[in-house]
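Progress report, Aim 2. The chain analyzed during this reporting quarter is listed below.
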Amino acid sequence: MKNLIYQYYVPYEANDSHFGGLNMPDWAIAGSKSALKYSVHCDAEYELSTERYFHHLDPRLDSLRLFYDERFDEYDNILCLDLDMLIPTKENIFDLEIGDVAMVHELGVHQHQGAWLRNVMDVPNYKRGVIAYGKKLFGEDWMFPKSVLYPNERFRYLNGGLQLWSKKGRLKARKHFTSVDDYYLHTRYTEQMYINLQLSQPIFNVTELDTSWNRLSSYQRLDGKINHYLGGRKKEMLR
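Predicted structure tokens for the chain:
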């Protein structure tokens, strides 16, 4: 098996510009070193990209290149990680059996960030409502699926910081994902919302990993296999 751990850094823009400019900030360097070390442990290749793929779109959409850029077709599995993550685990994530893609549901997102999520999801399409846009794409009966691991949540919402793609899944995404340009025109949101919309299609076999594989700093203790330092907590990566 030929596996890859992929990360990318492009300068932050607009309201996020304080996180990093042309030069990678120290927290991103720490995240890259952690992922590189983990790639050696997993006998996987490692790549850190600093080149834009979608030059006309929000730079955070660049993780989508994993299934649109044919040069990645040589890999059996690709683990895409945000740079604001540290990996203390010795467990090899590539040993897990997955379907098309494996990701982690944001447990508690409907409670802890519920107001924000409702404001994004439930407003009419003319106000860039995501559910309205999903119905435009997939029909009036469409809705986000429920989480398998956490069925009490309103619906599944996968965090884009960790994406483990099989080759079969990437090729399927290239064929069945709808236009990213149309998505950005209608929503102005990032790759996480796009992936959630696209993976709601029944054709995709999504493997849900438990939250230890992407432990979010926003409302969880950072005691996971992979810890994700969001927002202002990025500086904690350097302690």
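The chain has a mean pLDDT of 91. The beta strands are 3-8, 45-49, 77-81, 85-86, 101-105, 158-166, 206-209, 215-216, 227-228. These observations will guide the mutagenesis work planned for the next reporting period.
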